[in-house]
């Protein structure tokens, strides 16, 4: 394992921010920490990297016990914080050079690394800009470049796409995929389930500092009690057919409003086939049909009774 958290407990006075949290992160994977605001993602990162004291538990990174003074481990880690941490008076290039210089003393190598980081986040034409002159998305990309320029083996990103325009967001996400393809291990915190689905090999869903569930996106979705939701647009749906629909096996929810039919089924097979067979028999004309599989949010909702983003 590249990172192991065992039974981490972190309290802020009476609030338990991390409640016996366990994480095992393998080499080369993109690992997601997904949870609503205040679920403990940032606290988990800060405890993991010894930036914050915790009450009990143990953290190992690269098979070594992580401590605030373990610089051998620290220099192999790149951290991209949620809050932008760059110097206002330095240009884009100078900022990246400064952060890279904390780890890389060889000037020639550093110049190469800084250039590569600038290319990586596509900020070449903004090299001489000071941060104040950059848009929010470009600033996030600078923040990313500062965290990864020294070519760390483990990259920790804490909500790097918050308040970012779609273009920069896609660049950041694709950049992260590229880093993983180069063999880096990535830890990625977010409250956007779409990002986790797009990026992560495995994830842990957190709520109130507790691990709710861990697995691949597919494994977690499989845990949902709910099956697919089928939406059908029809020309007309006579009452007699509506009655028969109610009797379809595995149906959990039925909703019909002028031309639009929504059916939610429990897990299982043949729901669509049964539905289409009934439509054919009753000669129902279908204009459009979509099937929605359960999402990570559905699973979160089933377990915790609330939405992933209900307090965003
Ligand atoms: N310095 C602090 N003092 C007291 N409580 C804190 C402190 N930092 C965080 N908390 C609380 O600990 C809990 C976890 O917060 P944390 O910032 O780790 O969550 P998060 O999942 O990263 O949320 P966000 O998405 O908003 O960053 C929250 O209830 C928060 O209010």
Compact summary:
The chain is of the alpha/beta class. The protein is built from 11 helices and 14 strands.
Overall pLDDT metric: 92
Describe the biggest sheet?
A: 6 strands, mixed
Tell me roughly what share of residues is in helical segments. 25-40%
Bound small molecules, deduplicated: adenosine-5'-triphosphate
Tally of alpha and pi helices: 11
Task: Kindly estimate the percentage of residues that lie in beta strands according to DSSP.
Answer: 25-35%
CATH overall fold name of the largest domain: Rossmann fold
Order of strands in the sheet with most strands: 6-7-8-3-9-10
Structural class determined from secondary elements: alpha/beta
Low-confidence stretches: none
Looking at the structure, what is the overall shape? elongated
CATH superfamily of the largest domain: P-loop containing nucleotide triphosphate hydrolases
End-to-end distance: 33 Å
Q: Number of domains in the coordinates?
A: 2
């Amino acid at each position: 394992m590249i990172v192991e958290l065992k039974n981490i407990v972190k309290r802020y006075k009476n609030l338990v921010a991390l409640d016996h949290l366990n994480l095992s992160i393998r080499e080369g994977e993109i690992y997601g920490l997904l949870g609503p605001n205040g679920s403990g993602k940032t606290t988990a990162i800060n405890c993991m990297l010894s930036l914050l004291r915790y009450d009990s538990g143990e953290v190992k990174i690269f098979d070594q016990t992580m401590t605030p003074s373990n610089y051998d481990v620290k220099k192999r880690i790149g951290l991209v914080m949620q809050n932008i941490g760059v110097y206002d008076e330095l240009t884009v290039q100078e900022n990246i050079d400064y952060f890279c210089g904390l780890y890389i003393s060889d000037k020639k190598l550093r110049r190469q690394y800084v250039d590569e980081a600038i290319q990586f986040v596509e900020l070449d034409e903004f090299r001489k800009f000071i941060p104040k002159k950059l848009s929010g998305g470009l600033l996030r990309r600078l923040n990313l470049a500062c965290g990864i320029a020294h070519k760390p083996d483990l990259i920790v990103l804490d909500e790097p796409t918050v308040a970012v325009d779609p273009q920069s967001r896609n660049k950041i996400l694709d950049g992260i995929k590229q880093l993983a393809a180069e063999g880096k291990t990535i830890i990625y915190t977010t409250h956007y389930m779409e990002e986790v689905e797009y990026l992560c090999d495995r994830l842990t869903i957190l709520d109130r500092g507790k691990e709710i569930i861990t697995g691949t996106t597919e494994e977690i979705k499989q845990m949902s009690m709910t099956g697919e939701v089928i939406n059908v647009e029809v020309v007309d749906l006579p009452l007699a057919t509506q009655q028969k629909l109610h009797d379809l096996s595995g149906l959990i929810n039925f909703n019909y409003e002028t031309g639009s039919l929504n059916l939610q089924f429990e897990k299982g097979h043949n729901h669509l086939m049964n539905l289409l067979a009934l439509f054919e028999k009753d000669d129902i004309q279908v204009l459009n049909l979509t099937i929605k599989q359960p999402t990570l949010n559905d699973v979160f909702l089933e377990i915790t009774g609330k939405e992933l983003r209900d307090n965003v």
